[in-house]
Amino acid sequence: MKIKVYGSSCASTRKSRRWFNAHNIPYIYRDIMRHPLSVDEIQHILRLTEAGTEEIISTRSKIYKELDLNLETLPLKKLYKLIQEFPRLVRHPLIFDDNKLQVGFDEHNIRQFIPREERKKLLFESLFSFNQDPQIEGI
Protein backbone atom coordinates (compact mmCIF):
# COMPACT_ATOMS: atom_id res chain seq x y z
CA MET A 1 0.00 0.00 0.00
CA LYS A 2 1.15 3.47 -0.77
CA ILE A 3 1.84 5.93 2.02
CA LYS A 4 -1.05 8.25 2.75
CA VAL A 5 -0.80 11.71 4.29
CA TYR A 6 -4.17 12.90 5.49
CA GLY A 7 -4.38 16.36 6.96
CA SER A 8 -5.20 19.97 6.31
CA SER A 9 -3.28 23.08 5.41
CA CYS A 10 -1.62 23.17 8.85
CA ALA A 11 2.13 23.53 9.38
CA SER A 12 2.66 19.90 10.43
CA THR A 13 1.00 18.58 7.30
CA ARG A 14 3.08 20.92 5.12
CA LYS A 15 6.28 19.75 6.88
CA SER A 16 5.33 16.12 6.30
CA ARG A 17 4.67 16.67 2.61
CA ARG A 18 7.95 18.59 2.20
CA TRP A 19 9.82 15.75 3.93
CA PHE A 20 8.35 13.08 1.62
CA ASN A 21 9.07 15.25 -1.43
CA ALA A 22 12.66 15.89 -0.30
CA HIS A 23 13.24 12.13 0.12
CA ASN A 24 11.53 11.26 -3.17
CA ILE A 25 9.07 8.99 -1.40
CA PRO A 26 5.73 8.74 -3.21
CA TYR A 27 2.62 9.38 -1.16
CA ILE A 28 -1.03 10.21 -1.55
CA TYR A 29 -2.19 13.45 0.05
CA ARG A 30 -5.76 14.16 1.02
CA ASP A 31 -7.19 17.26 2.64
CA ILE A 32 -9.60 15.74 5.15
CA MET A 33 -11.32 19.07 5.62
CA ARG A 34 -12.57 18.85 2.02
CA HIS A 35 -12.82 15.07 1.81
CA PRO A 36 -13.61 13.61 5.24
CA LEU A 37 -12.50 10.15 6.29
CA SER A 38 -14.78 7.19 5.62
CA VAL A 39 -15.74 4.82 8.42
CA ASP A 40 -13.49 2.15 6.85
CA GLU A 41 -10.54 4.56 6.86
CA ILE A 42 -11.16 5.57 10.46
CA GLN A 43 -11.31 1.90 11.47
CA HIS A 44 -8.07 1.14 9.60
CA ILE A 45 -6.29 4.05 11.28
CA LEU A 46 -7.58 3.01 14.71
CA ARG A 47 -6.30 -0.55 14.13
CA LEU A 48 -2.82 0.92 13.60
CA THR A 49 -2.83 2.92 16.84
CA GLU A 50 -1.24 1.82 20.08
CA ALA A 51 -3.43 3.99 22.31
CA GLY A 52 -6.70 3.86 20.36
CA THR A 53 -8.81 6.97 20.01
CA GLU A 54 -6.63 8.97 22.40
CA GLU A 55 -3.81 8.81 19.86
CA ILE A 56 -5.72 10.37 16.98
CA ILE A 57 -8.21 12.72 18.65
CA SER A 58 -7.10 16.29 19.26
CA THR A 59 -8.37 16.79 22.78
CA ARG A 60 -6.98 20.34 22.82
CA SER A 61 -8.91 21.38 19.72
CA LYS A 62 -11.61 24.00 19.94
CA ILE A 63 -14.24 21.65 18.49
CA TYR A 64 -13.43 18.92 21.03
CA LYS A 65 -13.97 21.37 23.86
CA GLU A 66 -17.14 22.80 22.31
CA LEU A 67 -18.64 19.32 21.90
CA ASP A 68 -17.66 18.49 25.48
CA LEU A 69 -16.75 14.92 24.55
CA ASN A 70 -15.79 12.08 26.84
CA LEU A 71 -13.86 9.52 24.79
CA GLU A 72 -14.21 6.91 27.53
CA THR A 73 -18.00 6.77 27.28
CA LEU A 74 -18.51 7.75 23.64
CA PRO A 75 -19.65 4.83 21.44
CA LEU A 76 -17.36 4.22 18.44
CA LYS A 77 -20.17 4.63 15.89
CA LYS A 78 -20.90 8.08 17.32
CA LEU A 79 -17.18 8.94 17.22
CA TYR A 80 -16.96 7.90 13.55
CA LYS A 81 -19.87 10.18 12.72
CA LEU A 82 -18.34 13.08 14.67
CA ILE A 83 -14.96 12.65 12.91
CA GLN A 84 -16.72 12.76 9.55
CA GLU A 85 -18.75 15.80 10.54
CA PHE A 86 -15.89 17.60 12.34
CA PRO A 87 -12.54 16.62 10.75
CA ARG A 88 -10.71 18.99 13.10
CA LEU A 89 -11.31 16.45 15.87
CA VAL A 90 -8.48 14.42 14.35
CA ARG A 91 -4.85 15.34 14.92
CA HIS A 92 -3.05 16.30 11.72
CA PRO A 93 -1.42 14.88 9.76
CA LEU A 94 -2.25 11.20 9.84
CA ILE A 95 0.54 9.41 8.01
CA PHE A 96 0.01 5.72 7.40
CA ASP A 97 0.29 2.69 5.18
CA ASP A 98 -0.87 -0.90 5.68
CA ASN A 99 1.18 -1.46 8.84
CA LYS A 100 2.43 1.82 10.26
CA LEU A 101 0.88 5.00 11.58
CA GLN A 102 2.36 8.29 12.62
CA VAL A 103 0.17 11.02 14.05
CA GLY A 104 1.60 14.50 13.62
CA PHE A 105 4.98 15.37 12.15
CA ASP A 106 8.06 14.02 13.90
CA GLU A 107 11.27 14.15 11.87
CA HIS A 108 12.78 11.13 13.62
CA ASN A 109 9.74 8.82 13.52
CA ILE A 110 8.75 9.68 9.97
CA ARG A 111 11.85 7.79 8.80
CA GLN A 112 9.93 4.57 9.37
CA PHE A 113 8.33 5.27 5.99
CA ILE A 114 11.66 5.16 4.15
CA PRO A 115 11.82 1.76 2.45
CA ARG A 116 13.89 -0.74 4.48
CA GLU A 117 16.64 -1.12 1.88
CA GLU A 118 17.01 2.64 1.62
CA ARG A 119 17.19 2.94 5.45
CA LYS A 120 19.98 0.34 5.52
CA LYS A 121 21.85 2.22 2.82
CA LEU A 122 21.49 5.55 4.68
CA LEU A 123 22.63 3.96 7.94
CA PHE A 124 25.65 2.39 6.25
CA GLU A 125 26.58 5.69 4.61
CA SER A 126 26.26 7.60 7.88
CA LEU A 127 28.40 5.06 9.73
CA PHE A 128 31.18 5.10 7.18
CA SER A 129 31.09 8.66 5.90
CA PHE A 130 34.13 10.79 6.42
CA ASN A 131 34.06 14.51 6.92
CA GLN A 132 35.40 16.00 3.70
CA ASP A 133 36.35 19.28 5.37
CA PRO A 134 37.58 18.50 8.86
CA GLN A 135 38.05 21.37 11.26
CA ILE A 136 41.28 20.81 13.12
CA GLU A 137 41.68 23.11 16.07
CA GLY A 138 45.05 24.65 16.85
CA ILE A 139 46.43 24.68 13.32
Query: How far from one another are the termini?
Result: 54 Å
Helix content: 25-40%
Shape: elongated
Mean pLDDT: 88
Topology:
Layout: E1 3-7, H1 11-22, E2 27-31, H2 39-48, H3 53-56, H4 62-67, H5 76-85, E3 94-96, E4 101-103, H6 116-127
Parallel strand pairs: 1-2
Antiparallel strand pairs: 1-3, 3-4
Folded structure, characterized:
The chain is of the alpha+beta class. The protein is 39% helix and 12% strand. The protein has a four-stranded mixed β-sheet with strand order 2-1-3-4, with helices on one face.
Task: Describe, in short, the structure shown.
With 139 residues, the chain is of the alpha+beta class.
Give structural attributes.
6 helices, alpha+beta, single chain, 12% strand, Glutaredoxin
